[in-house]
């Protein structure tokens, strides 16, 4: 480790990663109990909890501005969607219905979510979406509107810099799809829960989410195979 980096850590200009902490403690031959405590603190320093109720008080449209900023800065964005669709893929009707549990006026939030969809047409970026069958078919809106929603996913999948994978219920996957998560390049990952979201910045946490993404990606259908499956599901809703 360079003297400059060590100095920046000592003067709190840089927050050390877990690897940095381990290197320093190993060099100091620190006792195991101190190593465990320091590593736990380092992980906390790279993890942030954002409660849903706080977002409601601030106004969800402000959260949309933050997401737009993250999407603007990232070159490769990976979305794992096990239960519902992200706003980037959603129709206005789906967006409004998905916010039905949110207190207060949601019109500004709906408008911000729709405006964020412009980023999908930034050809310098790479988008990777993994959707389970449940995420695609969960009946958020009436059946005819669900068919339109699935049509939109098919349309977006035609963009050359967007790759959409579909994981049918019949796909053999060794690991359960526990949480929705998004990984922005290799610098940040967000995980959604019922009561808020967790933001990870530690490289090890990000690497683990990338590994999980790769695991599910191997079981997904892509390109024409995915579009054919989506088309069948849309036809079922139309019938």
TrEMBL record:
This is HTH cro/C1-type domain-containing protein. Residues 1-35 form the HTH cro/C1-type domain. Pfam families: DUF5753, HTH_31. The lineage of its organism: Bacteria, Bacillati, Actinomycetota, Actinomycetes, Kitasatosporales. It comes from Streptomyces harbinensis.
């Amino acid at each position: 480790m360079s003297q400059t980096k060590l100095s920046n850590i000592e003067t709190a200009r840089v927050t050390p990663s877990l690897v940095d902490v381990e290197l320093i403690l190993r060099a100091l031959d620190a006792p195991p109990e101190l190593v465990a405590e320091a590593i736990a603190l380092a992980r906390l320093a790279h993890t942030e909890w954002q409660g849903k109720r706080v977002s409601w008080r601030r106004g969800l449209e402000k959260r949309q501005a933050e997401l737009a900023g993250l999407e603007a800065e990232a070159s490769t964005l990976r979305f794992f969607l096990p239960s519902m669709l992200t706003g980037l893929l959603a129709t206005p009707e789906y967006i409004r219905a998905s916010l039905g549990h949110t207190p207060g006026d949601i019109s500004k939030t709906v408008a911000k979510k729709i405006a964020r969809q412009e980023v999908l047409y930034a050809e310098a970026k790479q988008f990777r979406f993994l959707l389970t069958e449940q995420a695609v078919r969960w009946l958020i809106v009436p059946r005819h509107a669900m068919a339109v929603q699935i049509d939109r996913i098919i349309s977006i999948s035609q963009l050359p810099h967007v790759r959409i994978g579909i994981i049918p219920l019949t796909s053999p996957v060794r690991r359960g799809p526990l949480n929705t998560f998004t990984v922005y390049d290799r610098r940040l990952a967000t995980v959604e829960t019922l009561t808020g979201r967790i933001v990870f910045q530690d490289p090890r946490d990000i690497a683990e989410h990338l590994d999980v993404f790769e695991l599910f990606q191997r079981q997904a259908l892509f390109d024409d195979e995915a579009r054919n499956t989506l088309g069948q599901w849309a036809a079922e809703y139309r019938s």
